[in-house]
Target: Glutamine synthetase
Amino acid sequence: MVFHEHEKNSRGLISLKARAGFYSASFYLSLLHRCFIGINMATSASAQLSKAVKRHYMELPQGDKVQAMYIWIDGTGEGLRCKTRTLDYEPKSIEDLPEWNFDGSSTYQSEGSNSDMYLIPSAMFRDPFRKDPNKLVLCEVLKYNRKPAETNHRLTCKKVMQMVGEQTPWFGMEQEYTILGTDGHPFGWPSNGFPGPQGPYYCGVGADKAYGRDIVEAHYRACLYAGVTICGTNAEVMPAQWEFQVGPCEGIEMGDHLWVARFILHRVCEDFGIVASFDPKPIPGNWNGAGCHTNFSTKKTREEGGLKYIEECIEKLAKRHNYHIRAYDPKGGLDNARRLTGHHETSNIHEFSAGVANRGASIRIPRAVGQEKKGYFEDRRPSANCDPYAVTEALVRTCLLSEDGDEPVDY
Model:
């Protein structure tokens, strides 16, 4: 049916006239509902394509071939790129995966006159979008001369982690993010205003408190399928903001698992036609920002009397605050400056602080850890768009290798 005209009647409701035929009551109720609540969330055009049609093709047998999606970090230090190749076999380990290359001039990583970059497979996961036997392959990026790209922090992180392997460093990272329409407007927010003030949204339930749970549930299940060590999720303080937690992971696996969890989130949002933002302060004003709080422990801190070693770590961190601020967002602290204001459950970017159960401190010792005298501490400074390799490397350098000063040691 085609609408002939739209007009408002005396009550201000929308009446609809059609050239022929009648519409069901449910049709009119649905349309009126959309008119009243102003559903105009900007979504991508690809989200409107028929998923049922796509499913037909995705269910076709693929013979003995395997699709391997190679994933890497681009020149921004926070964006992800990917492309797929066909393998004649199912890889069982990283060693089974071939190196590959890509055009770095299109990813902010090289000039067009010398654009080839190398992809070095580094971690492999099951593919939750194409399903078994297909794979997601996280890669390091090397330049034409086989030296690491500027945003390849995995190489030095892995080296540092190997140096302290006997101390079994464990990490857990709490990744906050915001769901946006393709126009940058937060998902579920009124098109010409703001939702109610913060308060009912954190860990909230209900259509007026939890915005976009479908994304969260799909992402959680996809991570479990992939083999990502995801350990929880919750709605955050700002409406349309969520958090998932990855860990505990030992050493280099922390960065691997968090980057793949981010990639999966971007792909899930792509299917729904919306965007996941890791901006540390997506909405200015009296709204919470987004961080990536990092929990850290070692064999010594987890054993009896471990609080002593936690306090030693905090003393070392206090003397190296500026170094960590530079390592904790991809713009050397500029992104975090918008978030670490001393308000909205953050510390001030210019000051170092620590305390038990204090969410306004740089370093928080959980209350249970203070009581049991062992466990872990939480560094609340990393931004949502941090590179987990850079964050975990910085913590190990300062706390376990006892580095000081504003520059990392070149081992």
The chain has two domains: 46-151, 160-401. The mean pLDDT is 91. Residues 253-272 form the longest helix (20 residues). DSSP finds eleven helices and 15 strands in the chain.
